[in-house]
Amino acid sequence: MHNGMVSSPEFGNSAMDYMDSPAQSSSISTQSPAGTAAAVDSQFVVKHNASAELYQMFKESVDLLLSGKVIIQEQALLLSKIMNLAAEMQIVFEDEKQYLLGDVLCSWAMKQQKLSIGSLWTQSMNYRDLDMIHHQFEYFGELLEQTMSGLTYLIERYPEHGLHDIYMKFHHIAHYFLYYSIIVSKQPPSVVVKCGEAENHRRSRFWFDTEIRVLGGSAFGLDSTNEGIEVKCFLITDDTAKQLLKNAYHPFGNEEFLISPPSSNFQKKSGHSLKAKFDDMRVAKKDTLRRDSVATKRYCLCYDIHLRSKHGIELIGKKVSLPFAVLVGPKTDVEAKLFLERSFADLVRKPLSEIPPTVSYDEMASAIEMKFQAIAETPQKSNEIIPVIQPRMFTNQTKHHLVSRLKPNAAAQISLEQFMKHPVAEEYTVKKSGSNDGEWKLVPFYEWYFKVAEIVNKYLYTMWSNGLIFGFCGKDEAEHLLRACSRSTLLIRFSDIEYGKIKITVRDKAGVIRHHWYDHTDLNGRGLAKELLANPKFSEVECIYPNINMEVALGGRQKPVDNRKPRFLQPTPVYFDNQGAATSAF
Known about the structure:
This protein is an alpha+beta fold and 586 residues long. The protein folds into two domains: 33-356, Sandwich (Immunoglobulin-like); 401-554, SHC Adaptor Protein. It contains 15 helices and 21 strands. Strands 1, 2, 4, 5, 6, 7, 8, 9 and 10 form a nine-stranded antiparallel sheet that branches. Strands 16, 17, 18, 19, 20 and 21 form a six-stranded mixed sheet that branches. It has a two-stranded parallel sheet with strand order 3-11. Strand 14 (423-430) and strand 15 form a beta hairpin.
């Protein structure tokens, strides 16, 4: 093969791949192929069976020819048969390779991109699928390597019969397949907040984990040959990434920010694939940067790869992560744009592409559910560990309520401009002059929605996870739901209209419905669970919607504290019957 750079083909993992050329081949011994894949998708089984059947005929013919039992007059005929089989194998091997890379792995990478905005549990479920894909790659890799080994022996015995050209075609298939089996198996988050306000902000991400993984490759010795090999990581701008798409030799290094750790080593545990783990990654500024100038840029992690395998194949190139933002302090609008990019842009097949103008109802419903779950579980401090547990899922009612607020058209398509600009709530803001005067400001969907998720994260996570908060519904719907209740019941929901407020809709024993609200700042003083138990407005409420016993769920109401009443003059008990504190609970 030539020694020029091979650029990213029709499929690339997660974002972009850049590949340099392989070296020349060497020989190894022939071994029996593995059995057909078990417990994998049916399409792969069909394709792999076709490859395995042809390989078996090829192997039997090669073994017979090399056994010395074929007379000289018949060797040419058998050799011709072997070459015809090899030509057929090139076709079916190419088909199986393309299926594994262009269908199986590409589909996984596209799903990885969309799920990268979700909870750790959501991402971990997709990550587990790599184990099955790894086995599929192993099955195909074994057939491919053993075919090349058989051809190597034939070339040694019959060097003048054009077998080298056939071998090099398989060599090309192997090089392509092995290079694209190296993937960014764990992506950086869409937004990394660094410095300033980030230290006390819920979207602060002081650390994150990424990973480079080799799928399959055991038959080619990738795991045994490259254990301990160093992988360097650089933080580059998307402009540099675009240059690398055109020229894999484009010079680069850390730009504007430093990434730590700057390197890792490939390791292999028993029964697992070869991995280079970059744990607790952090971003540090190289120089003083303006917040606004940084917020408009996108960055990528670039991993420098150089691995060796059997048959003299060298895998040299760069693996580039999905793009992300590095913010000096939090900016919700930038986070929203990156959310749309990760959720809806085709970054796997079209690196650094733009988001589409519209998406379907189902796509939007799935994306906003995952984003809410991710914000809700974000740690408050950098040393907190997020438990990998299944988050609370949205009901169909919740999805419909939220997506309807984005005004889908008659074809159930949602304009992404609606997500960023459509006003759904209002916020009263006090003027900076110091007076109590203020004005109402319209709040777009993304800002209202992210604020609700933040409130759940800071104040209501346990109640939300336990199903005690109904969540997203309007005033009329809440009243309709409570009218069907036979006992006194309250329903906790997020205000559709008033930014950052929690609404408590109550149906009392007489069937009268009333509404109360709390600003999210009220919850700094006392948690909502304690407030509901202590506030006399809810003293006669028996259930939390739909029929959850309120005292059992929240821990029981506090008994009246008598030591605050005068004791020494011993007034009569009825003295306090019609008295109460004038101040509210806050």
